[in-house]
Design brief:
binds magnesium ion; five-stranded mixed β-barrel; BirA Bifunctional Protein, domain 2; 430 residues; binds 4-amino-1,4-dioxobutan-2-aminium adenosine-5'-monophosphate
Length: 430
């Protein structure tokens, strides 16, 4: 018997094949059962005619519980009315397990219930679509960097020091000392850039953030390119090229999933290069013009980001934030040392920051001073300072948050739906 998958049925019209999957839904009409079978690649309707199967099987299928596992065998018919365009005229169904009463039945459920049942919720159409798009974005990111001469360098998850704010560190016992879960691979990527020129790391990062917003996870994925002999302008260009490419790839390769999510893609289709660029000072002006008060030096909150984004149809790059609000490793703007040579990218349609990055301080003494001003433990950074002792060069990079990017592309409100098992302030189960 030819075993295949739902997405390949077109190759088997007129032939008898087996599909291995789960019962998604069913209905009956007289001598017919219509079994919707999902196998992870798609959903196909199996039509069971009473006279084609044993009486026993026909009776059993009248009550077959949702999510029962089964191997369905039948002849493939092309039928434009069927979901997916093909149908199986069932000859046999082997039932592997009769499922219990499925907790995520047809009723609608609250988000808390769904998140507690995330291990099952993954099977539903929208969640399935989110994660297929996520998978596509990851593939496109890797392809983008691999085809732009970057070397993939995996940075450690267990680290000895902070990269971003120390208040956001998760501590772990590391034998007789303390270690931290990585907040960003950047510092290690900088070391790698001095060895390989152009590198990227891509992995999970952790922030013990007490923020309970739709954009914060305690565990999220970040891709971080880092380039030797690059400056702020170079990485702004790279960032917009990457993001435009991700938009294009998803629009082209994941049409079906975007449709399932009812994503209105008009705005995404308008995204072309270059993206608008604003200085922090210009962004503050836009906020104040909209009659919202804003303290100079603050980072933008979600409402501020929304105001700025609403002025543009494309993502925007905001550069040169006040240095004091930014991390210790940022290079100061030689034109105005109160400003850092950094950049944030805000996604369009009010989705907020998806990228943060900039040019790194490459002068040994300035960096030493900064480490002490930020009250960081100097010994932890000796290796990092070595990069400025032995062949220091201007260099820059950025980090793109995967979940925020995927949520934006999917048009999904909350980042927790675009990661398989979200970790947030109050959630670490399942
Ligand atoms: O702006 P961030 O903190 O920058 C860095 O970590 C730099 N060291 C990156 C670099 O230059 N190599 O974080 C980068 C991005 C943000 O723009 C956002 O998209 C995402 O990471 N991010 C989060 N995503 C989900 N939940 C959180 N708690 C996040 N914090 C940051
Ligand atoms: Mg940031």
């Amino acid at each position: 018997m030819q075993v295949t998958t739902v997405n390949k049925l077109a190759q088997y019209v007129g032939e008898v094949v087996s599909i291995r999957g789960w019962l998604y839904n069913r209905r009956s009409k007289g001598k017919l059962h219509f079994l919707l079978i999902r196998d992870g690649t798609g959903i196909v309707q199996g039509v069971m005619f009473q006279d084609d199967v044993s009486q026993n099987l026909f009776t059993q299928c009248a009550h077959l519980p949702q999510e029962s596992s089964l191997i369905a065998t039948g002849k493939v018919h092309q039928d434009p009315r069927a979901p997916g365009g093909y149908e199986l005229a069932l000859k046999d169904v082997e039932i592997l397990q009769l499922a219990g009463e499925y907790p995520l039945g047809k009723k609608s459920h609250g988000s808390d219930f769904l998140l507690k049942n995330r291990h099952l919720w993954l099977r539903s159409k929208k969640q399935h679509a989110h994660l297929k798009i996520r998978s596509e974005v990851v593939r496109a990111i890797r392809h983008f960097f691999d085809s732009h001469d970057f070397v993939l360098i995996d940075t450690p998850i267990l680290t000895s020091s902070a990269c971003e704010e120390t208040s956001g560190l998760f501590e772990v016992n590391y034998f007789d000392r303390r270690a931290y879960l990585s907040q960003s691979g950047q510092l290690y990527a900088e070391a790698a850039a001095m060895a390989f020129g152009r590198v990227y790391c891509f992995g999970p990062t952790f922030r013990a953030e007490k923020s309970k917003t739709r954009k914060h996870l305690t565990e999220f994925w970040m891709v971080e390119p880092e380039i030797a002999y690059a400056n702020l302008d170079d990485i702004m260009e790279l960032a917009e090229e990457l993001v435009a490419n991700l938009v294009e790839e998803v629009l082209e390769k994941r049409k079906e999933e975007l449709k399932i999510l009812e994503r209105d893609t008009k705005m995404l289709e308008k995204i072309t290069l270059p993206f608008p660029r604003l200085s922090y000072a210009q962004a503050v002006e836009i906020i104040r013009d909209s009659k919202v008060s804003f303290e100079w030096g603050e980072d933008f909150g979600a409402p501020h980001e929304a105001i700025i984004s609403s002025h543009f149809e494309r993502p925007v790059l905001i550069h040169r934030f006040p240095a004091e609000s930014k991390a210790f490793y940022m290079k100061k703007d030689p034109q105005d040392p109160h400003l850092a040579l950094c950049v944030d990218m805000l996604a369009s349609e009010g989705y907020g920051e998806i990228i943060g990055g900039g040019q790194r301080e490459d002068d040994l003494e300035t960096l030493e001073k900064s480490i002490s001003e930020y009250k960081l433990t100097r010994e932890d950074f000796e290796w990092y300072l070595d990069l400025r002792r032995y062949g220091s060069v201007p260099h820059a990079g950025f980090g793109l948050g995967l979940e925020r990017t995927v949520a934006w592309l999917c048009g999904t409100h909350h980042v927790r739906e675009v990661i398989p098992f979200p970790r947030t302030l109050y959630r670490i189960y399942p």
